[in-house]
Amino acid sequence: MVMYETIALQIEEGIATISLNRPPVNALNTRLFQELGQVAAELDADPAVRVVVITGSGDKAFAAGVDITEMKDLTPVGAYHFCKTARSAFVSIENMSKPTIAAVNGLALGGGCELALTCDFRLASETAKFALPEINLGIIPGGGATQRLPRLLGVARAKELLFLGEMIDANQAGQYGLVNKVVPVADLAQEAKALANKLAVKSAHALGVIKNSVNAGLNMSLSEALDFETKNFILVFASDDRREGIGAFMEKRKPVFTGK
């Protein structure tokens, strides 16, 4: 197992938990982005890992944005390389074949919010807060928010958050559709584990195909996306999991999927 400087990794019963670990507020820097991309590739290639949870160490922040000490002296060329590194990490997480859950345990600002957007599910503690405050610094988000947020919330709501740069609490985030569920602080880890356990017993193969169908289809016309879905529907009929799932249904028992 690779040792990381800026994240902590725990794998238990098929569930991998990545904890951002740059106290006090888990600010995102180049090294952390590099390690996120690295761990995403490692976990995606590990057949024993069924679900990935991403959270922040400590109780203050999921990730309170990028490290301003690294950002303040960037030239345009430096900004390009910084953005490229962040984008690579976020795309690696977004494109993992396995379900991902962001367990947002505090501040999710700027790049922290953008990291949460790359995950399939977002659970938030009651004390979580979200913002894209880049506009207040005279810059714009560089980790995908201008593109992922409108696709998730719709253009009007996304522009509200991007243009104003104001912080919203967990309940507002839930109302906006930014998070799937808001839970008490003490229950966040357990709620994330419960959701991960539900996903872990599903067909890993089918989950990966569904995820790919949704993500890729967003960038296609409806007609193209429907054709893509049809191809993927045919693809899963060649899997062992399809035979097990339908066989178990006919035999009135719970299926035992192998991910093949």
UniProtKB/TrEMBL annotation:
GO terms for biological process: fatty acid beta-oxidation. Pfam families: ECH_1. The keyword Isomerase does not apply. It catalyses: a short-chain (3S)-3-hydroxyacyl-CoA = a short-chain (2E)-enoyl-CoA + H2O. PANTHER family: ENOYL-COA HYDRATASE, MITOCHONDRIAL, ENOYL-COA HYDRATASE-RELATED. Belongs to the enoyl-CoA hydratase/isomerase family. This is short-chain-enoyl-CoA hydratase. The lineage of its organism: Bacteria, Bacillati, Bacillota, Clostridia, Eubacteriales.
